Design the sequence.
């Protein structure tokens, strides 16, 4: 069953904002020598969509936590009277920074959501709930973790009049989901996919613990992410090499793992030889309760 998750129902507002140059910011200077013309490059990467009302009303920030190389994403609907906002994959160590930004920007945080049960850092969700009591935590039902709201494929998570659609993308963990900005005239264009650890830039999440499965990850990426428009922006939960954003079209062309056939992919994944995340024994139990166990006894700055 598809559900719409909206904490504060309100009538839609009419918009008369001028279209900004967000597209130029998203695609600063794509210029690869193998493409002899702009049109060839465009057909490989996906044609540009017309900027929507949703693009100008969306406030978007990519935030970084350097110890675990984790990205947290802040999204808000600036056209909504309350400027409702969500945080995707907050980290405990950077909660104060994130909440101070939210305060500076005059946003109302309504959801702290996770793409999955992380193994390398403790989620900031528990701390955030302690500091801003109305905030609700969100995670997938399949994660079997504790949270206020459990989501499944097809659910829409509203913040103001904008929404994130839930796509089930297991493989790195059983409960991994990808949150994708809405499809519609008043939603951001190009779309944005918050892929967690399912799809990384020129890589993907490991599949050797937490119910990981290479076959599932391959299927998830090909059926749930590579079927999005090619100009969809890909925002992962981690990057270890300094990349910040990619597109579906770019990953379909250049991802060294997911451009392979499934058998070759499985072989690559079986031979990654990565050491276990340093924090795994602390992070997984903490994240199974959305970081709430850490609340007691922790010294936190009031926001
Ligand atoms: N060295 C880091 C952990 C690095 C790591 O294993 N990253 C994960 C995502 S966090 S569980 C991963 O899937 N990496 C895929 C890859 O190809 O690097 C630490 O000790 O925390």
Sequence:
């Amino acid at each position: 069953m598809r559900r719409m998750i909206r904490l504060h129902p309100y009538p839609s507002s009419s918009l008369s904002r001028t279209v900004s140059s967000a597209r130029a910011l998203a695609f600063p200077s794509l210029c690869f020598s193998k493409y002899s013309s702009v049109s060839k490059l465009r057909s490989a990467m996906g044609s540009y969509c017309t900027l929507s009302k949703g693009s100008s009303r969306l406030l978007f920030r990519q935030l970084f936590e350097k110890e675990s190389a984790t990205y947290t994403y802040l999204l808000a609907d600036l056209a909504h009277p309350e400027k409702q906002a969500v945080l995707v994959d907050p980290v405990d160590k950077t909660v104060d920074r994130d909440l101070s930004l939210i305060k500076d920007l005059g946003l109302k945080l309504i959801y702290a959501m996770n793409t999955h049960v992380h193994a390398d850092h403790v989620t900031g969700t528990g701390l955030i709930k302690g500091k801003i009591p109305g905030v609700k935590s969100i995670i997938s039902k399949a994660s079997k973790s504790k949270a206020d709201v459990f989501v499944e494929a097809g659910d829409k998570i509203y913040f103001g009049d904008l929404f994130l659609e839930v796509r089930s993308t297991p493989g790195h963990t059983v409960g991994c989901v990808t949150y994708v900005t809405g499809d519609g005239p008043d939603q951001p264009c190009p779309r944005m996919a918050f892929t967690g650890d399912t799809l990384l830039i020129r890589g993907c999440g490991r599949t050797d613990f937490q119910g990981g499965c290479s076959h599932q990850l391959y299927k998830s990426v090909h059926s749930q992410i590579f079927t999005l428009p090619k100009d969809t922006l890909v925002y992962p939960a981690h990057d270890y090499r300094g990349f910040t954003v990619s597109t579906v079209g770019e990953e379909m062309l250049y991802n060294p793992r997911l451009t392979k056939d499934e058998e070759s992919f499985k072989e690559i994944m079986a031979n990654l030889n990565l050491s276990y995340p340093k924090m795994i024994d602390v992070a997984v139990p903490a994240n199974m309760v959305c970081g709430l166990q850490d609340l007691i006894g922790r010294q936190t700055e009031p926001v």
Remarks:
- The CA atoms of residues 120 and 244 lie 19 Å apart.
- The pocket of L3IBWBLD is lined by residues 68, 119-120, 197, 203, 205-206, 238, 272, 274, 277-279 (CB under 6 Å).
- The two ends are 38 Å apart (CA to CA).
